[in-house]
Amino acid sequence: MGCSPSEQELYDRGVKELRSGNYQESITYFDKVIEINPDNTEAHNAKGVAFFEQENWDAAIASFKTSMEKDSTSYKPYLNLGNAYLEKKEFKQAVINYNIASSLDPNQTDIYYNRGLALLGMEAYEDAILDFDNALQVDPSQALTHFNRGKALIGNNNPEEAINSLHRSVELDDQNGAAFYLLGVTEMSLTNTKEEGCMHLKTALKLGYTGAKEWIDEFCDTAS
């Protein structure tokens, strides 16, 4: 018995494999932990993370739910459940779990961005904008947050502020073709700034965003 690895040693090995990207191997270790102690909430949660990384959303959800049942005071399985539901585009369930995670640990500011994405998926634009604003207060340099804030502002009929957000997004990340495309389309269709819109659409096309070509062909001088 003294030669057998302990519960903690097995868990640590699983975490090591998880961090190395050896997801199936990590699950094997977490299963051994759970065999020794079915109530090890961290092992269930970590097993869910391994399934999540394999894009096996349903298996991940099952493990996160078991972890939550074993310890309903930890924010981690709720946050991870929210992320899995977000990947499945089950936005309402995602928001429910993000809300619980946030109530259990209000300092978990990573929740803001992901909950904002779920709210955006639900077309709850004002609430999404609030979450993106909170995320940007923590870190104003998040290009994707500015991009998705721009989407929410468009949905909320605020094209001028949306353009400001999208400008900030492409300033921070000049390789996001989708952001240049949305910026160009918004400028052309909602604020009638054709020259700038065409410039941004052409940048989007150069970056491989092929959806920009139809707009360029119809509305822009393709000789330039």
UniProtKB/TrEMBL annotation:
Pfam families: TPR_11 (PF13414), TPR_16 (PF13432)
InterPro entries associated with the record: TPR-like_helical_dom_sf, TPR_rpt, Ycf3
TPR repeat start-end pairs: 7-40, 75-108, 109-142, 143-176
UniProt keyword terms in alphabetical order: Repeat, TPR repeat
Gene3D superfamilies: Tetratricopeptide repeat domain
Protein name: Tetratricopeptide repeat protein
Organism: Echinicola arenosa
